[in-house]
Batch of 2 targets.
Target 1
Amino acid sequence: MTFSCWLLARLLLLLPIQVPLILPALFDSLFLGMTSLTLWRCIYKVKQWRNIGFPIMLFAALVINNVSYYALFERDFILANQIWQAMLWWLALLITIVGGRVIPFFTAMRIKATKADPLTWVEYPLILTMILLVIQSLIHLIPQEVERGLLLITGLLHLVRFVRWLPHKTLTEPMLWSLHLAYLMLPLSLLAMSWYLDNEYAYRSLLHLFAIGCMATLCLSMISRVSLGHTSRNIYEGPKMILAFICLPLAALLRALMPIWFPAHSQVWLWLAGTCWFIAFALFVWHYLPILFRPRIDGRPG
């Protein structure tokens, strides 16, 4: 039912006939609302209150998503752009929370080291500043110089967190260093955006440093990992994905930084970035499609 709502919302927007926006908005809201409610019920059932932020974040996404439909209805492209940026930071907040749990855990388990305990003076301010970035993207409440400081502080806090996860000890394990490399792109994006905040073209271009370098690379690394784990295969003895894990951060640099530094060749950088993106996900399909189409090797269903 939940997936059907998600699918219907998107199919309605693709139809060649005029469809009232209230219909896809309704199905989108049902999808996000039911997902949020399901998560809340699971959390309530086992009393895992440390995860209560996830259904709250999904409910916030529901509200912001409906505002995006309003912007589309009114043809308010300025508001639509603000929502787009805010939801990127919403995803960065999600990565901050989930990545902050799983990346050090996976690393400690594999390298047989003690997992770094979270530092209160890093974790709580970091979550707060990420939330402020979402709000700032929506309503531009604080002055530019304050926003610059916010981006700088948030980036530095992420770097402190990142260094404590011992990334240098993962260099022989692509399934680990790809996660670390993806997460590193988040503070690098924040620091670069702090530097270029008064340059609107550069600031918008640098959003791709996060979207491709962090978000897409993290997705690729995680789907590669779970495709093996959920088919009962050894996570660290799977297909060679080194080239794919390198191509996405490279695509991010080509898409985000090169047009800023060498704008005369922007089209070249876009084509190269697109090629790197294609190679990365083509390699995943090539290596993992046969695995995902075959039964689990332990004979269990799924």
Note: The chain has eleven helices and no strands.
Target 2
Amino acid sequence: MRFAKGHGTGNDFVILPDPDGTLPLTPALVAALCDRRRGIGADGVLRVVRSAAHPEAEASAAGAEWFMDYWNADGSQSEMCGNGVRVYARYLAEAGLVDPEGSFDLVTRAGVVPVTMGEEITAGMPVPRVYVQSEADSFGASFIGTAVDVGNPHLVCAVDEPTLEGLDLTRAPAVDPLIFPAGVNIEFAAAGPAPTGSDLYRRMRVYERGSGETQSCGSGACAVAAVALYHAGLDSGVVVIDLPGGRLTVTSTPTECLLRGPAVVVAHGDVDAQAIRQLAPTYS
């Protein structure tokens, strides 16, 4: 089974080329591939499949050739992944499937995402919707947060720098299941001086549903930017966000949310499909 490995600011993915949609992908197989000791290791799997070959893409494809079939490390599926979009796009460009300097539309479970290629890649993300206050509980500490929909669910909790540094994210913070019945990505964000050319700055860490703490989360960066702008009384602006894996820039208006950052494909190879399938029942 062919694979590639890529990352966007440290948020890493196993990339499976499957243009005709023939790979029998299952939650257990995905979890086995993402196992960092017995599989390849990743925060998730990106299956590269044509929209016409995947039933979830057909209704929203609108002429877009490629569908991002994204799976979390635990084998669950997700609607959107901002870093995944950029890594998927980089793979397509390096495989000669799209213009490496052009623009194209990519289908996701959260809708069609416009992508602009370059040294860094820009993805037109779903416009974040800030909708309710809630809280997250972690190791006895309670954090007030703001719920945000970016095509997938987020809870953004403002903290100070010492709290951000000291957070223990080895297990999922508890949240209100009535507000987040399908789980939620939880971002903790601390403010700082805005770099030249930007309006606001945040440093963040994230616990992603289905993956644990990751080095970066693109849709989470968009959620953090939306909350930062909201609390600053701004309906538009540029927010620079530093994560453990690197820097992302979010440019937001009432009708558009652009996520810009690096994306790298670091390896290509073959995985022993029989060995992975033998491991997969461990995760069933």
Note: Residues 160 and 190 are 5 Å apart (CA to CA).
